[in-house]
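pasting for ref
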Amino acid sequence: MEQDIRTKREGFFRHLTEKRLSDAYAASLANDWRTMARYMGAFPTTGEMRDYYQGMLKRGLSPARMGNTIKMFRRWGTYAEVEPPDLTAPRDHNKRVVYLSELEATRLLHACHDIRDYAALCVMLYGGLRWSEVAHLRWNDVNLEQRIITSVAPRRANRRRTHRPQGGPCAHPVEGAVPG
């Protein structure tokens, strides 16, 4: 059986390189197929591929790994003329947004050497605006009495966002951060 799998893997690899995939990517897909074939035999059916995928889910493999397996299923399906299972990779919920701590934000503000940079950083840090939104701000977008900033997404002129800046050092300027 191992010899049959080796022969099929080499054929699959040649097929992938003929489709103009890089040798490294083709080898990666072919090795993924070999791993799967060792569990199910050289000609896995659609149902067996689906079962293999479910087993990978139970083992808790990463979404990126699952996505690569799905790509391998599809490529194998075109090579072996087998209908690949209709699967989607799970979403990666491990991507964490990392925010600056209050101390890091204050240090960043202390590093500002002019009032323009200080003001832009304050709006980004405590108003939640992106740098492109700050770059496109106009005075009529700022309501100082109600403490509201209305920004327009630069690429979507019809999309407006309202921001209410939260406290922080910008509510009371940091001494020494901006030369007077």
